[in-house]
Amino acid sequence: MIGVLEVVGHRHGRSFDDEDERLLTGFVDQAALALERVRLFEEEARSPVLARSDELKSSLLAAVSHDLRTPLATIKASATSLLDPEIAWTDEARAEFLHAIDEETDRLALLVDNLLDLSKIEGGVLRAERAWYDVAELVADVAGRLAATVAAHSFSTDVAPDLPLVRFDYIQIRQVLTNLGENAVKYTLPGTAIVLAARRVPGAIELSVTDRGPGIEATVLPRVFDTFYRGEPSGRVAGSGIGLAICKGLVEANGGQIWAESWRGAGTVVRFTLPLDPDSEQPA
Ligand code: ATP
Ligand code: MG
Predict the structure, then answer these.
(1) Which domains are present in the chain?
(2) Which is the closest atom of ligand 1 to the Cα of 246?
(3) Which residues form the Histidine kinase domain (predicted)?
(4) Which of 12, 88, 109, 273 satisfies CB 3.0 to 4.6 Å to 256 for a cystine?
(5) Which residue has a Cα nearest atom 24 of ligand 1?
(6) Residue 227's pLDDT is what?
């Protein structure tokens, strides 16, 4: 049932006859048909959106189920081993298990943050809570958080002196830098250099993560920011292909742009800007 028609009284006070009933029934049938047509039309308009979100959900599940299971398995195995009353672990072994738990928990937390951001970006409900921040402090914070991840690399930061304050969503931009730092570690050999840099460019602050890894083929370079895109050789490295898509969504929500430059065999640099809007007053 899509509606009820209530008929109250007759204009000339007489009761309804067969003719009236036929007329009203015809009227109701037409109204029902018209409503049905509108409903079908709306459904048709909505189905590409639904199909797109269904597609997204299944790709997402396929992509992340492995990424979720691997760290969980490591955490579970390490905790179970540590709790085993039969085994007296050496200090070194205990530290190794605890390190594994620490690292894999960070990886899980990053993945969950990325998934939440992706759903907001895809749903068109991502908002940047922009406030004034010091980029040097942001870079130091990210460097600290990445310390365990980059431990096997030669990691450094390079922040230009006297950068002005800039308005951005701190949590979101920290997530961008963390994702870029994670990629730099994942796709390059231990011991190679990774640099987290910040400098002033006309109208913006530019942040970048540079590595000395295998680089990205020029033909696929424009696709690395697509959702679920993963490069060929990365088949061996864990990942869902959502890190850079999220970076793009977050940077754009903050009014900036993101792009990658790469040289096959010589490394990759991913840069993004945070605009210094000239109309807004700097706080004292
Ligand atoms: P996720 O970030 O979701 O765990 P991912 O790292 O595969 O998975 P993205 O961060 O979006 O996904 O990167 C997309 C692809 O771009 C990667 O699979 C990889 O092929 C390539 N790529 C990204 N960063 C680098 C880099 N620094 N050096 C070489 N290739 C890279
Ligand atoms: Mg990544």
Answers:
(1) 131-275 (3.30.565.10)
(2) 11
(3) 63-278
(4) 273
(5) 183
(6) 87
